[in-house]
UniProtKB/TrEMBL annotation:
This is Nodulation protein L. InterPro entries: Hexapep, Hexapep_transf_CS, Hexapeptide_acetyltransf, Mac_dom, Trimer_LpxA-like_sf. One of its GO terms (molecular function) is acetyltransferase activity. Belongs to the transferase hexapeptide repeat family. CDD domains: LbH_MAT_GAT (cd03357). SUPFAM superfamilies: Trimeric LpxA-like enzymes. Acetyltransferase implicated in the O-acetylation of Nod factors. Keywords: Acyltransferase, Nodulation, Repeat, Transferase. It comes from Komagataeibacter melaceti. The keyword Acyltransferase applies. Residues 8-54 form the Maltose/galactoside acetyltransferase domain.
Length: 178
């Protein structure tokens, strides 16, 4: 018989989990306390995030769920007002620049209404490559991979993976001609 997994273990695996679980609520409360200090400039990224490369910068205000699932490469820059829902890993590669108000949303919800009534959630990891530029107000949906050197136009909603070296824009984001 397999041991019962905790809600946190389910969350980290990207499986359906109950977000109101006491352990997860405790983790979110700790993250909220850290965010309050960080946004006042009284805390560092290294205190909470999974990994922080050299010269990585996040301008306050910044918002996330847990923090420990965010992995930043060297010289990563997130401008004012970014949101990262990090119920599973969110990886951002070296030299990537992210505009103000960008939302990186790894959290997901069941399509089945019965499962939603049970307040279940899940997550799908997001990977953003190296030297990517994401314009202000863009939204990256769960499970997306953005390839190295890609550009995502301001206000875009990224619903599909973005190939390396390509430019996308719009809602939904579509490939732009060179």
């Amino acid at each position: 018989m397999m041991p019962q997994r905790t809600e946190k273990q389910k969350m980290l695996a990207g499986d359906l989990y109950v977000a109101s679980d006491p352990e997860l609520q405790h983790d979110m409360a700790q993250c909220a306390e850290w965010l309050a200090r960080y946004n006042r400039r009284d805390a560092s990224l290294h205190e909470r995030l999974g990994a922080v490369g050299q010269h990585a910068t996040i301008r306050a205000p910044f918002h996330c769920d847990y923090g420990y699932n965010i992995f930043l490469g060297n010289n990563v820059f997130l401008n004012f007002g970014c949101i990262v829902l990090d119920v599973v890993p969110v990886r951002i590669g070296d030299g990537t620049q992210i505009g103000p108000g960008v939302q990186i949303l790894a959290a997901d919800h069941p399509r089945d209404p019965e499962l939603r009534r049970k307040m279940l959630e899940s997550g799908r990891p997001i990977t953003i490559g190296k030297n990517v530029w994401i314009g202000g107000g863009a939204i990256i949906l769960p499970g997306i991979t953005v390839g190295d050197d890609a550009i995502i136009g301001a206000g875009s909603v990224v619903t599909h993976d973005v190939a390396p070296g390509t430019k996308v824009a719009g809602n939904p984001a579509r490939l732009l001609r060179s």
